[in-house]
Specification:
With 389 residues, the protein is α+β, with helices and mostly antiparallel strands. Helix content is 52%, strand content 15%. The protein has helices spanning 18-45, 50-60, 77-88, 92-112, 115-127, 238-272, 284-313, 318-342, 354-366, 371-383; strands at 132-135, 151-155, 158-169, 176-183, 186-193, 199-203, 215-225, 274-275, 278-279. It binds flavin-adenine dinucleotide. Flavin-adenine dinucleotide binds at residues 100, 134-137, 142-143, 167-169, 210, 215, 363, 366-368, 370, 372-373, 388.
Length: 389
């Protein structure tokens, strides 16, 4: 019997269907040709060719790929997870690009939108012709989105929106923003064309993490919209939280890719670099670290694939997603930090992917529910006692 493959030790890829493997290969190939050679530059300059990327992702069928109809591919949840994994093996910012488009902006319109809103936006968003963003977080409302101050009030049959959203991915390049606001009737979602007078997106500068991703402050100053701009049915936090759950699902797969890339970089580096007359990988302390990385990468991959199967079976609870996000992001960050040490001085350079991943994963630990929020969700799940406030 052959020894296990160091790049897929538990042979997890054997569990994938033919379609899932095809998608894995297509995304890997695209990532290797179009993304990996450029990502260090994008990261260093903090600039991203968003329109070009959107077109490429659209042609590959990645935008809203797990949604049905409106030009979306309608793949399994597992296939979507695998695509996120392969994208995030290059950079968390690129996976965020696809997550925000498909799982936040498009999903929100697909799940909660009127027929007119769906027909107007989804086909163009699936091809990448129109980018979307998702505005929930505010300067003073992050983990506690219920305390948001953005307000939508009625003026005749119109809505008028005022407020500020913060840390909004793709806000500066979006054609449409899904904005959540307080109304007399509870929190509601609005489909806001970003060309509407009173809407401004300002780039967030000075980020030290997720630099290959565009982040914005959205200012809504008397943004007047027709009555048809509101999502018709949904009220309260259920609306945005339902979308976040979709995006978190992509994250718990994505970070397996980031962890795998760090492990592979550390393995390759320590096998080729010699100190004290032999490869670094030949020292016991290095092997201990490699074994720890291997275990974490495979454990998180196993968790992701189990959660993927639960989602496709229709039995996934959002507490499972909290489990996966908490466990896999923490594990990827541990892997990245350990791998960073194994590359010595080269570990801090953009010539290697490890520190870039490590720094990105600090954002991933925080957005889509911080580590603490997911711990509290799990705490409530197992004790029935809410400890959020
Ligand atoms: P806070 O909520 O202020 O939390 C600060 C710390 O306090 C955290 O450690 C938190 O866990 C802890 N804490 C808070 N409450 C409690 C409690 N009850 N018990 C214990 N600890 C607690 N948002 C969007 O809406 N759309 C986007 O596209 C988007 N993209 C983002 C991109 C980037 C690069 C980043 C960094 C963020 C993005 N976010 C986005 C925002 C993100 O979701 C929030 O940053 C996140 O929800 C945390 O909110 P906060 O930063 O205000 O932290």
């Amino acid at each position: 019997m052959n020894t296990p493959d160091p790049h897929d030790f538990l042979d997890l890829d054997a569990e994938l269907s033919g379609e899932e493997r095809d998608i894995r290969d297509a995304v890997r190939e695209y990532a290797a040709e179009q993304l990996a050679p450029n990502v260090a530059d994008w990261y260093e300059t903090g600039a991203l060719p968003a329109a070009e990327l959107a077109k490429g992702f659209g042609q590959l069928g990645l935008l809203g790929m797990h949604l049905e109809g409106y030009g979306c591919a309608g793949t399994s949840a597992m296939a979507y997870g695998i695509a996120c994994r392969e994208l995030e093996a290059v950079d968390s910012g690129l996976r965020s690009f696809v997550s925000v488009q498909g799982s936040l902006a498009m999903y929100a319109i697909h799940r909660w939108g009127s027929d007119e809103q769906k027909a107007e936006w989804l086909p163009r968003m699936a091809t990448g012709e129109a980018l979307g963003c998702f505005g929930l977080t505010e300067p003073d409302a992050g983990s506690d989105p219920g305390s948001m101050r953005t307000r939508a009030v009625r003026d005749g049959s119109d809505w008028v929106l005022d407020g500020t959203k913060m840390w909004i991915t793709n806000g500066t390049v979006a054609a449409v923003a899904v904005v959540w606001a307080q109304t007399d009737d509870g929190i509601r979602g609005f489909v806001v064309p970003t060309s509407t007078p009173g809407f401004t997106a300002n780039e967030v500068k000075h980020k030290l993490s997720l630099r290959a991703s565009l982040t914005a402050e959205l200012v809504l100053d008397g943004v007047r919209l027709p009555g048809s701009a509101a999502f018709p049915e949904v009220r309260g936090l259920r609306g945005p939280l339902n979308c976040l759950n979709e995006a978190r699902y992509g994250i718990l797969f994505g970070v397996v890719g980031a962890a795998r890339a760090c492990y592979e970089s550390a393995l390759e580096y320590t096998l080729s670099r010699t100190q004290f007359g032999k490869p670094l990988a030949g020292f016991q302390l290095t092997q201990r670290k490699l074994a720890d990385l291997l275990v974490e990468v495979n454990r998180s991959g196993l968790i992701a694939q189990r959660i993927g199967r639960l989602k496709d079976a229709g039995t996934l609870h959002h507490h499972h997603v909290s489990f996966g996000k908490l466990s896999n992001v923490r594990s990827a960050l541990d892997v990245a930090r350990t791998a960073r040490s194994m590359l010595g001085a080269n570990g801090i350079s953009l010539e290697y992917p490890v520190m870039r991943h490590m720094s990105n994963l600090e954002t991933v630990l925080t957005y889509e529910g911080t580590e603490e929020m997911h711990a509290l969700t799990l705490g409530q799940s197992i004790t029935t006692l809410p400890a959020f406030r």
